[in-house]
Design goal:
The protein has about 160 residues and is an alpha/beta fold. It has helices spanning about 1-15, 25-40, 55-60, 100-115; strands at about 50, 70, 85-95, 120-125, 145-150, 155-160. The chain contains 4 helices and 6 strands; from the N terminus they run ααβαββαβββ.
Length: about 160
């Protein structure tokens, strides 16, 4: 998991155009591109990055739509459970409030618990704050938080993990 976290950090450092810090959707698309270009280095056996993959009630037991997931798609993979092949689930907010961050941490926790994601990541863009103290995840070491912003053309990252 350390290599995956480093890949996410490297991908965040690769987002240097100020335009992508103006909206969640723009940042999400660029992060997707950055992650996709680095994913083969991790050798995750066919894993892909998907945007806003809808979790369906009949298949997943809830309808949360995470911003990005890194997984091997269940369909056609021959897995026994939907939790097989899941690597990381990512939620992105732009200038998140304490309450919206708390809501995202709850969603991330639920996806880790119910779908077996071994790791979840919260990214607060254009901010200094991760609000990691709002995370009440029972296995809190699985939740990583980043705040990321541009200052004088340089990407500034704060990383926190709840342990």
């Amino acid at each position: 998991m350390d290599a995956l976290i480093q890949t996410i950090k490297d991908s965040l450092l690769g987002i240097t155009n100020p335009r992508f810090y103006e909206t969640e959707r723009g940042f999400q698309g660029e992060l997707n591109a950055e992650l996709r270009s680095r994913l083969p280095e991790l050798e995750l056996d066919g894993a892909i990055v998907e945007q806003e993959y809808q979790k369906r009630m009949k298949d997943h037991g809830f309808t949360i739509r995470p911003d990005l997931i890194i997984h091997v798609p269940f369909e056609g993979a021959g897995f026994e459970r939907r939790s097989d092949g899941n690597f990381v689930v990512i939620e992105i907010k732009r200038r998140a409030s304490r309450k919206s961050a708390k809501d995202d941490y709850q969603n991330l926790s639920r996806m880790c618990h119910e779908l077996g994601y071994p790791m979840a990541v919260f990214i607060n863009i254009d901010s200094d704050e991760t609000f990691i103290n709002e995370c009440n995840h029972p296995a809190q070491g699985l939740i990583h938080a980043f705040s990321v912003k541009l200052e004088n053309g340089e990407v500034q990252i704060t990383e926190r993990t709840r342990t």
